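#struct-queue
[09:14] JT: dropping the first one here, sequence first, then the structure tokens:
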Amino acid sequence: MKPQGLLVHAESMARHFSADADLALPERPRIPPEVLVLPFDEDGLLFVGTKQTQLLRGRSARDLLPRLILHLTGGSTVEEIVSRFPGLASGTIRNAVALLYSRGLLEDGCPPPAAADLQDVDSFLGRFVDVTRANRNRREALDRLQASTVFVGGSDEAADLMQRQLAGSGIGRLGHVRDAEGDLRGCSLLVAVATREADDLTSSLEQARQQGVWALHVRAAQDVVQIGPLLMPGQVCCYRCMREIHDLPHGDADPDLVSFWLGMAALEAFLVLSRVGHPHLHNGFELYERTRHGIVPQHRYVVGMPGCSRCGLGGPPLDPKTPAFLSWLFHSSLSMPPHELRSPREHQHHYDASNIALTLEVDEPYYGAPVVALPTARLLDGPLPWSEVESQRREIDLEDLATLLWYAAGYQKIEDGALRRIAPTAGGLGSPELFVIAHRVRGLPEGLYRYHSPRHVLERLRDSSLPVLQAALGIATALPPCTIVGTGALGKLRSKYQNFSYRLVNLDAGVALGYLHDVAAALGLQVREYSNVHDKAIAEAISLPTAGNRYVPTFAIGLGGEDPRAQETFTALGPQVLDGVIDAAGPPPSQRRMRSDRQENRSVTAARGEATPTLSTFGSVLLTRRSVRAYTMQPITPAILQRFTTLAVDICRKRIDSDGASVHVRPWLALRVPSGALGAGVYQIDVERPDDLVLRLGGFSRDDMERCLVQKSLSCAPAMIFITGDFGSALAERGSRGYRELLLQAGAVVSRSLLVATAHGLGACASAGLIEASFRPLANIDRYRDCPLVVLTAGYPAES
């Protein structure tokens, strides 16, 4: 079932470039002259000299590419180059250029030669300019350097040595911090260096913070060297918070190695200023420890501490030694770099051969497991489930179960027999997988089953042990007729998204969970969530392969009424739920945050009229939904905006009412195109009265929207819905589990918002690639009690 080989064809890559607004070919493509091109076997060309060695194969690789390379000098447009190959099909040259560019082998234009003393720097920039795509060519990167002013702070000896390491790198102005005479505001970067244990960098780093200047922290000790973090005032972490989390290295620097270590730090400063290196110091630092086995490198993360006025975070302080703090630190470690460090190249990774292969992978069956065929899912031709309240059925049959599973995790056949996952998932990887505990499902023997979504069948695993399952679910009541356990393919997501996969696997689970809630409502089924699930116990109970965290449990939901003959008890077998539950209405009034003192907030009431859906049946909404990334500038009517806000809050209440997690998420509306009484701006949605919106920022431009998103193309949307979570309440209420519950809750809001958009003729696209540091000042939030988690763009689809 897995695709053969990791190949990307030129035609396929060109198709991606034409369909994705975030991708654009260079106007005048040029292969850097530093790149070495070598023949490889009978049908290959090897390109050496950029970040990664590239091998291109095929008949055209040895026939067309050597002739094409002669024309890729940066002096001709793609159309001009096409005209020089009249015997080829019109798209052949463009396809080849797209493939070369996708492999990091092209820059745009032919910049004039650099000065003689900067030719080595110019050559380096040319070879690595495509690593981030923040620059079109080497000259743009060099111009960034020459426009930079760098001051070095620390002892005279350390500062002089650091300046020598930075000299000759193309930096326009380089000097000691004392030369600034207390005014750093024209400084691009302060490099604060300590080479002795007694060196104190607090004063210079605090001065940089107060004046809004970036500062690179460097400390070289006897056996440990710390390079970073890059302290960006008001964004991730201040120097004081870093020291609360991590001890500073002890001892004076080894005189034989100090020049080497400061050279490493100089390289980091060079990469930050030129933007040719991936950002990795905005929320962490590199630690090098000398041991008897050699030098051991580590990457350590930093985060602002709750209650720190320098970091702008509210809430009570967290003990750095607690699991709750580790959850906060983990979240911060996954945060996107600030807009100023954004790497357009990151989006390109969707089109790497290995990642394309991942999207084509289909879950394999449990070989040897008895198969139970499922009936075709119901069309759900009734009204939208949030439009009216129906009676709650206590019983469930096999057709009900098939309908729930198919819409939440199944596939729809589309053109040419291809399969499309009905519920959206990050990267199209389809991470959610569902297991079924059948207790009293009409037409299905009791037991434990796995839903194999590509075949729409159940695979029987074994009989289920009710006491074991009750303990794993954290309950002492009788099981309902059917329980669905959600799991996530963390290993698959990690192959593409690394550590960010944990956030995505739980957001995906929240979307699937939201679909289950709404489909169950359409079927009239009772629903109960289990918020005290023991992860290890439930994984063992359903035989989940968890080695290496390949799969992880995400949620459990009961369907149908409990057996009325069973005597009910409320003594939980799982972890106890704390008193003082915080529901979707938010924390008690005494704990609510003061409104912004930066501006006077204004409450606006959205239109009260009902918005008439363009799709009248729930099934048509589920099957019509698509992720839309191109929009018109037509305003969204106030009545539809009101439906978004009301129903987004409604899904949170529904989860809580069904015994789900009692943590708090909040949707926000960022409106670029005015609608009725709602002008452009950022609005806080009052979860107690969703019709009422609190204006937090007047005016909201496309540039503002672009600064908040990793995918620039999504900024063409007229509106965005941000979902934030109260991290402080989540951790206080649920401990480290609260982070996962926040993500599940946010995913459920996304699922409902996507369906509401589709029902009213809108397009929408969810993205976890939001830049928290940009959204924070726009909404005037503290990023801890209103922590941005995911964003949804919405608008009327543009014609393709």
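[09:21] JT: and here's the second one, same format:
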Amino acid sequence: MLTLPSLDHPRRSRTWTIVAVVTAALMVAVGMWATGSQAANASTASTSVIAPSISCSGASSINLLTLSGANAEITSTTSVAASANPAGDWAACEVQGIITPETHFTLYLPTSTYAGEYLQEGCGGGCGSVNVSEPTAATGCTQSTDGNFAVAADDEGHEGSGFSVMAFQDPEMKAVFGYSSEHQLALVSKAILKGFYGSAPTESYFDGCSDGGREALIEAQRYPTDFNGIIAGSPASIQTELNAFEEAWNAQANTGAGGVPILTNADLAPLHTAVLQACGGSTAVTLGYLSDPLACDWNPAGIECKTGQTSTSSDFCLTAAQVETVDKLYSGVRDSSGELLYPGYELRGSELNWAGWIVPSGNQESGAIDANIATTAWQSWITPTGTFDGSANYMDVKFTKADFEKVTAENDGELDATDPNLSAFEKAGGKLILWAGYSDPAINPAGTISYYQAVVKTMGGLNATEQFAKLFLLPGVAHCGGGQGPNNFDALTAITDWVTKDSAPSSLLATSTNSSGTVTASLPIYAYPNIAVDTTGGSITSASSYTPEVSKAEESLNIQWLGSFRSGYETVSGWVNGQWVTRPAGLN
């Protein structure tokens, strides 16, 4: 990264009270697919515990003044009992602080279980609050439950909620959110760990989903030595195009006269069943999801209502307007020439998960999440002119090549994480697990697959890429969890084993559980471009029935769009002689 000279801050940093919000995340819980005698929840942590070298109260005196790359201050230290720790059932010293200009962070330091490992958690949506919780992708990970990790998170440089981030009208705060917050937190956390335990962590890991997945890829691309292992779930890495165009397209496609939604929640279940029956037959209907959705090209016109026909629960059909809406969702955001403005589209088999995101619960499309994101993006995130429009609405968005070029030129360099050249990360010994739900309506997996394909092409082919980076696609799983397919899995044990034992995962074990925690279904999730196929004739809900098979649809996916996955688009910003300057990042 280009180093800017004389980066002075012409304003004083403010000390704000950190708002720690513990939410029930819509994120995946996890359990690793083990082979042979390897246990699914086998711990890779060292048995030796590293004790603190100072007291929790003494941590407030750790000197961060000489830290290069982040100007930080510890604002409080508190001893936390295991029962009160949101990061897990282990006693900790809670350290809160602030990184200039306004990034609030919280770090939990194990007081009797630390094994020399650091875990940094990403933040979803527009962030705006510090949310340390149990790891996203780690169901059954004993390192996590045993308290072997010190765990930290931040608010990405601003306070707020939802997707409206008016703070981005400040270019410095937008840059912090865009690319620097997680790097700075990594620097600060490691310095605090060294001061508290007497030594820096042996291994460091990052786990994030959605915007947290984008943060994960920013780290791999811009700061390749920060983390030994990175888990990037459903990454919002093509962020400018996603927020400015793709989500506006989805919302506009479902907007009828007077803002009334064209598709309603009552339409989604029978539509979903029609897709499953057409593309997967009775097996897919029983499972509730498609195993290979990219192979499905079902046309919604096949169930268009005939003249005089009225749709009923027993005789479901789509109106002409609904057929057009579904077609638009499956086709993806396009300009008048048919060129995609985002490298993806809603996949067939994801219909049930459109509820909330694309299809609102109320009678106005503006209540859908996609409509909200698109509106607030144009109000406070995205601007092709430098002037933010507080009255912008998702219906105002134009899907033109000219607008695409203006918006991406203005925002890609700070917000996107699409560089396919991960050679510095590979050279540093880093390992990357990418994952996405195949029925994700929020960040459709086609874009993630397209990025991984670009990495494969750039890094010398699939075999070479799989030495340090793998992609796993979960059938039937929605955005960062939930959905119809098995969605509990353990990528954290997989990544720590890969880093510490050089044991690369060929698959992950995903499970479904009922309300009492009993496993009701299991499925092996094989690395791209393989899918799980029942070749044994065994139970379709048992992982032992499945073997890997190359998905021709995954392998041959070749999305052409107005953008590209390339190096050299990144920018870096800073204060130079009292002026805010943005320059090319100069990454290798």
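[09:30] RK: nice, looked through the second one.
[09:31] RK: The mean pLDDT is 91.
[09:31] JT: good to know. The first helix runs from residue 142 to 145.
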